[in-house]
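Working notes for the structural subgroup meeting. M.R. asked for a predicted model of this chain before we commit to crystallization trials. I am recording the input and output together here so anyone reviewing the notebook later can reproduce the run.

Input as submitted:
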Amino acid sequence: MTTTDLGFVHRFEPGDASVRPLLLLHGTGGDEADLLPLGRRVSPGAALLSPRGPVLENGMPRFFRRLSEGVFDADDVRRRAADLAGFVAAARARYGLPAPLALGFSNGANIAAAMLLLHPETLAGAVLLRPMVPLSDAAPADLAGRPVLMLSGAADPIVPAENAARLAALLTAAGARVEHATLPAGHGLSQADLAGVEAWMAREAPPA
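Returned structure, recorded in token form:
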């Protein structure tokens, strides 16, 4: 069921308390229903918490403002990351959840990366699909061994390979255990992404 409380329009699906919950973060133009099937597939039984991005760009929901393609409003990134971290804390209290594992695509992956860098206590780890560096001047975080999977596309016209590599280096320097793979794909998701996420979840997802 979609609800509007806790500060974000969101969907919550209860799950098995022994499985780490997922925080699902959609890409530009998506909504709170977009990644539910992916979440159910890659982590059967997990509780699913899926907010809708509160920023509109030409009517399309996003999690923060951008000035142009690939150029982000740094002040808005910081503000929205704090707001989303607050929502996660409120949702954890409401629904009785441990810290979730983020699963984000594109803009959703970028806000998840921003939370890792700015509010590392919020997430138990993350799966970042087609992410970019969200902030160039984020202070070093302490990610203390948190697992992070990054999947980039070799033919992605939006995310430069150098940018994705820089994000992997930033997260590694902050203490995360980063696995970064580049797949034979563009910006959209492929069967290789699904297989890669499923294998990583089975191997690396932290227990609840």
